[in-house]
Amino acid sequence: MLTAIVLIDTEPNKIPEVADQVVNLQGVSEVYSVTGKADLVAMVRVRDHEELADAIADGISKVPGVLRTETLIAFRAYSSVDLDQAFALGLED
């Protein structure tokens, strides 16, 4: 499994529309609106490099409103906590 973190710069008035389209692309597991260098961050998880090219070069980069992308490919995952549990801190059922 390959994991890529894709930083996405968008037209400022199209951030929500771009996020909605990107999250529905094959291989994209989640999209976050963020502060800082990029407007959006997409997590892409695929089986091989060909699927990665499909998801990013043929998918994310072609969404209307996307100006630029920068892709970071993960080598290893380090985690001491379950991410779902970490993001649920303070939320009671």
Automatic annotation (TrEMBL):
Transmembrane segments: none annotated. Residues 6-76 form the Transcription regulator AsnC/Lrp ligand binding domain. GO terms for biological process: response to amino acid. InterPro entries: Dimeric_a/b-barrel (IPR011008), Tscrpt_reg_AsnC/Lrp_C (IPR019887). GO terms for molecular function: sequence-specific DNA binding. It comes from the Bacteria. GO terms for cellular component: cytosol. This is Transcriptional regulator, AsnC family. It comes from Xylanimonas cellulosilytica (strain DSM 15894 / JCM 12276 / CECT 5975 / KCTC 9989 / LMG 20990 / NBRC 107835 / XIL07).
